[in-house]
Amino acid sequence: xxxxxxxxxxxxxxxxxxxxxxxxxxxxxxxxxxxxxxxxxxxxxxxxxxxxxxxxxxxxxxxxxxxxxxxxxxxxxxxxxxxxxxxxxxxxxxxxxxxxxxxxxxxxxxxxxxxxxxxxxxxxxxxxxxxxxxxxxxxxxxxxxxxxxxxxxxxxxxxxxxxxxxxxxxxxxxxxxxxxxxxxxxxxxxxxxxxxxxxxxxxxxxxxxxxxx
Amino acid sequence: xxxxxxxxxxxxxxxxxxxxxxxxxxxxxxxxxxxxxxxxxxxxxxxxxxxxxxxxxxxxxxxxxxxxxxxxxxxxxxxxxxxxxxxxxxxxxxxxxxxxxxxxxxxxxxxxxxxxxxxxxxxxxxxxxxxxxxxxxxxxxxxxxxxxxxxxxxxxxxxxxxxxxxxxxxxxxxxxxxxxxxxxxxxxxxxxxxxxxxxxxxxxxxxxxxxxxxxxxxxxxxxxxxxxxxxxxxxxxxxxxxxxxxxxxxxxxxxxxxxxxxxxxxxxxxxxxxxxxxxxxxxxxxxxxxxxxxxxxxxxxxxxxxxxxxxxxxxxxxxxxxxxxxxxxxxxxxxxxxxxxxxxxxxxxxxxxxxxxxxxxxxxxxxxxxxxxxxxxxxxxxxxxxxxxxxxxxxxxxxxxxxxxxxxxxxxxxxxxxxxxxxxxxxxxxxxxxxxxxxxxxxxxxxxxxxxxxxxxxxxxxxxxxxxxxxxxxxxxxxxxxxxxxxxxxxxxxxxxxxxxxxxxxxxxxxxxxxxxxxxxxxxxxxxxxxxxxxxxx
Amino acid sequence: xxxxxxxxxxxxxxxxxxxxxxxxxxxxxxxxxxxxxxxxxxxxxxxxxxxxxxxxxxxxxxxxxxxxxxxxxxxxxxxxxxxxxxxxxxxxxx
Lengths: 213, 538, 94
Known about the structure:
The structure holds three protein chains of three kinds.
Chain A: H1 15-50, H2 52-60, H3 64-89, H4 93-123, H5 138-175, H6 178-207
Chain B: H1 15-19, H2 24-52, H3 63-98, H4 107-130, H5 143-147, H6 152-179, H7 192-224, H8 237-271, H9 278-291, H10 307-335, H11 344-367, H12 369-375, H13 379-409, H14 415-442, H15 456-486
Chain C: H1 8-30, H2 37-56, H3 64-90
């Protein structure tokens, strides 16, 4: 298989500088994402502090099976993308592609399960607004607003991550030029891990408020 | 002669070569033209306001329209002029040159940030055309999210999109400055303009996402009637303010830090002197960037925020004044025993220092809880921030444009006329805004279209000043355009300034440098002056 | 040059620990722990995050600069949380 020398963009002195710049760039972008989600987490914290009982009541109506399953799926997808990055660094084309595809399948499963979950939530009248179930107190609506906003925003990020990973998978498969794509795969992996981390916090905050009472 | 060789302006003259450029210099020019457009609209809104305020019971516009005018003025000036002004114009043009690089780290992201700016600007402009927004640039809930009948969502969308453009600009600069400095260019050999751009970029990157989520949440609340900020739904309007100001206070430092960077460059050149206290000035930029994130509650003293939180924010606001003061002292010390010449850039910069001191000190008055309770929501606040934003930032921007115009365009502008324009701007500015301190202190509220008759005199002064100020902006516009065709051709280094950008041609070639320079000296190494104030000749 | 990627074994072990932590979190939430339950759960979530960052995102093998960039966002979030929460909590003293 031809292994073309990876090109260095003209503004960089050498490949290492390009790689350093790209890595730092992605981490900077992730910092912006932390602050982007942060606003929602802040709102959650404030309202949970004031309306703990209502939040508890609302949280009990979330589907623990869907939520827990999705968590395991995402954690596993982090593993698979890390394995893909490792394979790329070892210049193993087949392995890289395999692990990328596994990641994509897991991501798709996450979204499918989310779809079922949302469908069930809507059918159970858990959408804030005039159709909100009267069996829950007022501030459970606030809870569910945050539920939809936070999981929705997260799902958007999952979709973006999937699109990026799909594009990379296709490029690697067609061009067969792994060294040129190593950094890109790493950066996509970083983004994917971030998406996983957000979920690691969403899960206890949304699904596990006051489960024991 | 530089025009015999290709430069970045002549390298490709198709529309496509401009619209698809990844050359940071061309992107800087594109931003300059774009922000000029929005500045004009926002300035027109201001002109209409000042005309309305000539008379206590003015009938030039109906009250609703007046509300829209001050909103449009604020939104466009803040997000579509001030925030991108120095970073996206001068920063884009100069940072790679100043660090001896061929471009920024991510040139295509740079172009994308311009298109995001334009897209956001399109939505904002469209919202204006459709009838505007009347919430004030601060979009306080629940008025913005529930009760206003104006085009809030579209305007918020425009700001949201443009915000991502500015995040990318900040990201680009951080990585560029971190990884692409020329050989020998250590952090403490960097021009202070680069330090200030770095500090600005930290704020751009960390604060703007919070604005994004805040506007998103406000917009969703408006569209779907459910949310977090409306008391009727169990929400808290003060939470919106916390989220909004967490961004919007650091945003004012996004606006002023680049201006301070320009001051350091111009003042050393026209005092022919090393900057006094280089490290202090450099670190103070970073300090302002960081401490600036800790003070946002001073916009909320009367919002029902906890008194103790108010005291904390008040104290922190006093702290943030310290690094700014350090800069002013260091600039003044730089002037001391310098060999000062009063070219147009220097006139603007000296104006900046005086006006910024006034603005900064009045900021301290406002940071004092007990005073703020009385002057919050009055023209005192309006005067304070215009002294900083216009007297400071816009003046520095004008100074920077005048300083680097020969480098960017290869042309000189008429020297005397430029000096006259700078003075006109200074006079017009003070006549416009100083009376507003008095008005505010006497109790005239802001954001209202009519006022008690006893305030008329100062309002008339202010409007007359605004006319003169307008002339001060118009003149440079005219002679800059004139200079493009008829201006004398500029040498590589018309000001005999230090800095890598002056070591290449005016205008620079597409790839900035024929050979990447190696840096061995400290910045601002102007020849030392002897006891007679003359340069020692080697 | 950057160090080579983590071994398959360390990646797999990390995955296992993450999953175990996950079910621990679930378990704790189901049991009556009094007020301490929530801080413990959140602490475990933070541990999960740190594991992902150190191992999967290879921060343990990165240079100081990358690590600085990695924590910067969280530090700023902390500022936002602390001062805002401060306001709400201090209102109780009025």
